[in-house]
C-alpha cells in the first residue's frame, strides 16, 4: 500500500507516518499543493489523504484533478469543516470519504476499513 498525505502540520504528519510504518504501508508526505500534484502524477498512490486547507489555500482543485484523472485509487479528505453540506461538497469533488479534524488513529483505521485497501 502506497499512501500520500498532503498536510502542512508536522505533528499530524509525524502521527500518520508512525501509524503507516506500523502497518507496513509505504508513506510519503507533501506539504504544498504543487508537491502533492507532482507526486500524484508521478507515483499514483493507492491512497491520497488530503488536508483541505494547506498554507491557507484550498485543495479543492487538486482533489478534482486527482479524481478525474484517477491519480489515486482512494481519496480521503481531512478537514476541520465537516458539516453535512461540506462533507457532501468533498464527496462531490471526488473524495471517497471525509475525516473530521481533530481525528484519532481509530478514525483513520475505521475509514481504511471502509475503503477496503
Question: What are the defining features of this structure?
Answer:
117 residues, 7 strands, 25% strand, two-stranded antiparallel ribbon
Descriptive report:
This protein is α/β, with parallel strands linked by helices and 117 residues long. It has a single domain, classed as Response regulator (Rossmann fold), CATH 3.40.50. 46% of the residues lie in helices and 25% in strands. The protein has helices spanning 10-22, 33-43, 60-68, 84-93, 105-115; strands spanning 2-6, 26-30, 47-51, 53-54, 57-58, 74-79, 97-100. It has a five-stranded parallel sheet with strand order 2-1-3-6-7, with helices on both faces. A two-stranded antiparallel ribbon has the order 4-5. The protein is globular.
Write a brief structural summary.
The chain is of the alpha/beta class. It has five helices and seven strands. The protein has helices at 10-22, 33-43, 60-68, 84-93, 105-115, and strands at 2-6, 26-30, 47-51, 53-54, 57-58, 74-79, 97-100.
